[in-house]
Write a structure and sequence with these properties.
Strand order of the largest sheet: 6-5-7-8-9
Number of strands: 9
CATH superfamily of the largest domain: Cytidine Deaminase, domain 2
Helix content: 25-40%
Mean pLDDT: 84
CATH class of the largest domain: Alpha Beta
Structural class: alpha+beta
Distance between the termini: 45 Å
Number of domains: 2
Largest sheet: 5 strands, mixed
CATH architecture of the largest domain: 3-Layer(aba) Sandwich
Radius of gyration: 18 Å
Shape: globular
Order of helices and strands: EEEEHHEEHEHEE
Low-confidence stretches: 1-14
């Protein structure tokens, strides 16, 4: 059943968690949780990012990534696949880790690039600790992926680290 989240969302104030009502396409209202609203918002943002020229709107991409990753209590490593004109093909969360680390397998990143016919990538991961500073392991991983992906003519444009409300660009810091 499809739902129209924009047309009618109402919250009730109480000591209980926020209750939201949405109206479906038939006009009926039903209760949903805040997590469902956030998931729908993430889907809307992904649709706006997909096919867009990310280089002309880096702030939009940072906002999107912050929304996806900033509140998590575990690390996620994701990639934003780009076509030859740097338009977004897809956003893929590839690896999930613990509170302080994630195992990333270059072979799997290369495989996903071939499957999506990617010409470029943005590497992305979060730091649940709240510090956006890249670790030495982050720098080594970036160079390893750049080397592996260069063999199949895929450019790594940036590696972004999301930590709370901060997003650090390794390219802007000269670490690429």
């Amino acid at each position: 059943m499809s739902h129209d989240l924009i047309s009618s969302s109402v919250s009730f104030h109480s000591s209980q968690p926020t209750v939201l009502l949405v109206r479906d396409v038939a006009g009926d209202y039903r209760q949903i949780g805040a997590d469902q609203v956030l998931q729908a918002a993430q889907q809307v943002l992904l649709e706006r990012v997909r096919g867009s020229d990310v280089l002309s709107s880096p702030q939009f991409v940072r906002d999107y990534l912050r929304m996806r990753l900033s509140g998590l209590e575990h690390e996620i490593f994701a990639v934003v696949h780009l076509d030859s004109q740097n338009r977004v093909i897809d956003y893929v969360e590839m690896f999930r880790g613990s509170v302080s680390q994630t195992s990333v397998y270059p072979r799997e990143v290369v495989r996903e690039c071939i499957l999506r016919n990617s010409a470029g990538l943005l590497l992305v991961h979060n730091h649940p600790s709240g510090s956006a500073q890249p670790s030495r392991a982050d720098e080594v991983l970036t160079q390893t992926l750049k080397t592996a992906l260069s063999l199949i003519d895929v450019r790594v444009l940036d590696h972004l680290i999301v930590a709370g409300s901060d997003t650090l660009s390794m390219a802007e810091r000269g670490l690429m």
